[in-house]
Amino acid sequence: MANPKRTFFFFYKVLCFMVLTNVALVTSKSTIEPCSNSDTCNSLLGYTLYTDLKVAEVASLFQVDPISVLTANAIDISYPDVENHILPSQLFLKIPILCSCVDGIRKSVSTHYKTRPQDTLSSIADSIYGGLVSADQIREANSIADPSVLDVGENLAVPLPCTCFNGTDNGLPAIYLSYVVKPVDTLAAIAASYSTTITDLMNVNAMGSTAIKAGDILAVPLSACASNFPKYASDYGLIVPNGSYAITASHCVQCSCGPGSRNLYCMPASLAVSCSSMQCKSSNLMLGNVTVQQSAAGCNVTSCAYGGYANGTIITWTAAISSPCSPAYSCNTGISFCPSACSPVIWCHNSAQESYGAIYGVIYWTFPSRCPDRKCLRCFCIGEFSGRSSCCSYDILAYQINLTLPIVICLSALVGFCFLRLLSF
Question: Which of 237, 364, 369, 379 is the most exposed, having the fewest neighbouring CB atoms within 10 Å of its CB?
């Protein structure tokens, strides 16, 4: 008859070995989009600063325009010397990148890093680039035979994850953010933070369950405003995520996309540059100007809209729309009062429900009570997207109780205990 104690210890060793082996084999996942052509798209990286950095330093790290970093994160570009503004460590930013088709999959290959003393492939991947790339991916991209030997000043290609998915999500305009999962994240919290659903995230990332772990890279669809510029325009295909803006036409035009909007609103940029004419033909209206007339049916709005940038010329056209207002509201427009980061919409004014506030120096309008009609906002502004109100709770799950961290702690304790017990046998 077998010794019960010896049998118990045998199975105990097997269990501990399985736990140790499984933990060692766990690797992070990243969503990969196959491709077969040479087209590109605009994409975003979710990046957490590893130390205090200037805006220009962040831009240099990814080889992108500092202005595009500012606009992607709804930071006002009109402040003096804004490119030298110091951003604090652990700040989360969206980094705009160009997503290409390379070797049959989507990735960004325009980023390069010059090595410094004490750098290792792991520190470059995990710390400097925040887990957006792995040490093995850098090693493979640069054909490094011995990763323990890095020459100071070596120029390394850094392949970064990105997806396009035809610039749509469920048939609507979208731009995709590559998001590195944190230890405290849940799929529900991520979905709530980016105004999407668990089902949508699972479909986009081909997930069989809601289980995620730290280091996974998810493709997160962000609702956006898509342009309809002609193919000969240099900014053809411009797409701007909700709650942000973009600078185009050689820094002459600023196009913004308000939260919940699908239409770009473009106006002259605040940068001091020499630009071509921005007046609409056969009209006194300049780019971004709006005229409003009250009628029995509601509001008749005429605007001077942006149509792209071609051969040094800013293309403009006159747009006319009509929208009703209920009897309780009077017709108005926020064009004279909207800050640069807002998209003017038809405003049905009711002073009893109107309130004013500001966040991070950006003006926004909201309603403290119920929101019977979202169209009754003077502006769809970036500040409203960043803030909280009873009408727009974009971060209601930000403080959701999360079991991921306790599970990791318990598993680590079990692994350690098993390891000590194995040594004692």
Answer: 369
